User: Fold this.
Amino acid sequence: MSDPVSRREFVGDSAKLAFGAAIVPRFVLGGPGYKAPSARLNIACVGIGGMGMNNFGALLDENIVAICDVDFPYVERSLAGRLRPPNGQTVSSPESLRLKAAYDKATKYNDYREMLVKERDLDAVVIATPDHMHASIAFAAMSAGKHVYVQKPLTYSVAEARLLAKTAADKKLVTQMGNQGHSRDGTRRIKEIVASGLLGAIKDVHVWTDRPVRYWAQGIPRPQTQAQLETAFKSSLTTAPRNPALPAQWNKGTVDNAVRKAMSETTHVPPAGFNWDNYLGVAQEIPYHPVYHPFAWRGWVDFGAGALGDMGAHLVDQPFWALGLEYPTSISGSSTQWGGDIKTDPASYPLATYVQYEFAARGKAPPVKLYWYDGGLMPPRPPQLPDNMTLMTDSGDGGGGIFIGEKGFLQYSTYGDNPRVYPPALAEQVKKLPQTVERITTGHEVNWASAIKGEAKISSPFEYAAKLTETMLLGIVALRAGQGERLVYDGPNMKFTNKPEANKFLTREYRKGWELPVQV
Assistant:
């Protein structure tokens, strides 16, 4: 594994990368449409143990020159799973063998800062780490002149989304957020249907997902060290003792303490090959615990953006794009209990949340209210929905959305798949609508690579994705800043006008040495 570089060394060397003409990426030199002597991009992938491996596998026709991850033993276990022969077969698939060959060939790094300094011929970087590191890595890569593909949500905070959008525009780089549904036919058909006006004026949209229920834990307390548990126990002795003749009361506090104790009975140390400090990155220092990594990080406030950050990019995307929405004018929300103290350490996101957004009129289009539900919550059944139709869409992914129009409604499943219009007479008219929105004929990652080469139009650039991400994250801000309160938002100036103290949630506190140049 490569030795890490210091923050000072990285800043100095990346500045040279950003401004040294001799090392500007090959596909930037000639401007839009320029084709280098090599038809293959030099790409680095940061974070490939989870979704990043799918992104990596989609780009095997390019030249994957470097891979960066903080836990290569986990990556290699994931890769071994891909290499298992299908049922009834004795050899691995050709694609999995290509994946293994590309992985073996690439130079490995444990620190993205070192990678950006040493890999001078990089054209582009794919980022698929936990949410909290998206902005730091993308900003560093773009500052060094690299095109970037960043998994959703684009950033952890609103201020970071603004920073990445500005940097991408200033550097004139090709960028893409990993909301792959934006490149699918369903999302593009939804835009055509809404634009046709057949649904009539649309004033309400409901969006839902059952995550995190089936995927990761939320609403649970943070693991504690033995010292913290002992302190809490001693503190409990100062209260009036419980009457031993009465049975113990298993209320919420008792259950939370039992969960803390169960998670903390064993002192955990990071497994061999896992760099916990680099994993923390911008997050404040906390002790390692396997409840944070792998995958379960999404439910923890330190690292993830919860269900709204995870699935909003796949479900809010369709109304946001089709209705031409920008910044919401107000946001409010409510939720089940957070995993910790909402004021001092919320720890993990609530098990279920509800958020309401209000958007202003756009030209002749009326104001819109968009409602978000997760954790098993569902919207009230619209009166327009026939008794024999269900709100839960048929994708098998536990999520969907519905546009309520004056003349009919449109329902879709996760990623914008399976758009369906009701009533039947309206659905027949929809069938006759021509295609007016360009279709993406490749995968989402390949679309990005082709756009870098000037061979395609980019699908979900930061210019668009940053505003979608900001909308999603504003819902989380509303949940943290005041349950049930209506926060009035001045989008152009990125601030709340009726509750200024909520503005602190538009960014985060960065660990010393990991700061980003964000402004609030």
Remarks:
- Residues 462-481 form the longest helix (20 residues).
- The two ends are 38 Å apart (CA to CA).
- The first strand starts at residue 42 and ends at 46.
- The mean pLDDT is 89.
